[in-house]
Each structure stands twice: as C-alpha cells, then as structure tokens.
Amino acid sequence: MGKKISFIEVEFEQDVDMIHSWMTEDHVHPFWNLNIPIAEFREHLKKALNDEHHTLFIGCLDGVPMSYWEAYWVKGDVLEKTYDPAPHDQGVHLLIGDKEFLGKGYSLPLLREMVRFQFQDERTEKVMAEPDIRNEKMIHVFKKCGFKRIGPIELPDKTGLLMTCERGEFEKRWTP
C-alpha cells in the first residue's frame, strides 16, 4: 500500500467536528444513522467515549485522519444477545470518512491492522462484526480479511450481517 497505518484514540474536543462531518457523508449516513445535528452528535460521542467497553479511534494514513473505528468488548454490548459470546470476544465498527480515500483499496489493510491489534489481547479468540446487511462493499472487505458470515441479525438501528473472525483463521491468512 505504501502508506503508514496508525490509530489514535479519539479526543473529544479535537475530533468531534471531524467525525460529525464524516457521519453526514452520503457514503456513511445510510449505514450509521448518525446524520444528526452537531449538538445531538456531541452528546452521542460523549456517551460513547464514557462507555468503558468501547475504545474509539481515528485511523490515519501517513498521519492523515481518514477513518473512524470502534473497538469494543461484546460482553456488555447489544451484540451479546445475538449469539453465545466467549468472555473476551471483541467487536469492530469502522467507516472511511474522507471521500478522498474511498475506492483506493485502503479498507482491507486498515481492517487487518485493527483486527491484528485486537488479537494482541491473548484472551480474545474471535473478533465480531455486524455490518449493515445492505453494505455489500464492507461485507466483501470483511470476508477478504478472514471474517465468516453467520447470518442476519436484528439490531436496534439496523439489520446487520453477523460475521466472525477467528484467531486461527486470521493468523493463518495474515502471518508471513
């Protein structure tokens, strides 16, 4: 890819306006449903940052912020009611915010690095995802990363496709 991938934790005041602008993009809002006024979004982001089972990140390429990530523990999340989770299963949400970075093949390397980061916790054997069932592009990227389709699930804000990436499959696919 020729670019350095990095993830930095979201800092509310520094990042709220940028993340909100990404949420209003045409390629984002149909799947995230956060195309809301900035005052409401500020409250949403504050709540997410205070949620101890989530860690929010800005994904960067060569130091340029271009994506938003949520890494979370499935236990304590709405997702835990949709399957039988192990105690240290993690989940991931993502979006490419800046349109300039769309369609250039960046999603897979970014996702691979985030999942690799999540598997650094030796207790984690699975990383879960539940992309909007209509988001065929992201479902394709998850599959290429090593996620397997489980099936449709109903969540409060969408119909998702429950997917799982097991440590063994990930390491077999991505360890040199």
From TrEMBL:
<comment type="pathway">
    <text>Siderophore biosynthesis.</text>
</comment>
<keyword id="KW-0808">Transferase</keyword>
<keyword id="KW-0046">Antibiotic resistance</keyword>
<dbReference type="Pfam" id="PF13523">
    <property type="entry name" value="Acetyltransf_8"/>
</dbReference>
<dbReference type="GO" id="GO:0016746">
    <property type="term" value="F:acyltransferase activity"/>
</dbReference>
<comment type="function">
    <text>Acyltransferase required for the direct transfer of medium- to long-chain fatty acyl moieties from a carrier protein (MbtL) on to the epsilon-amino group of lysine residue in the mycobactin core.</text>
</comment>
<protein>
    <recommendedName>
        <fullName>Lysine N-acyltransferase MbtK</fullName>
    </recommendedName>
</protein>
<feature type="domain" description="N-acetyltransferase">
    <location>
        <begin position="6"/>
        <end position="168"/>
    </location>
</feature>
<dbReference type="InterPro" id="IPR019432">
    <property type="entry name" value="Acyltransferase_MbtK/IucB-like"/>
</dbReference>
<dbReference type="InterPro" id="IPR000182">
    <property type="entry name" value="GNAT_dom"/>
</dbReference>
<dbReference type="InterPro" id="IPR016181">
    <property type="entry name" value="Acyl_CoA_acyltransferase"/>
</dbReference>
<keyword id="KW-0012">Acyltransferase</keyword>
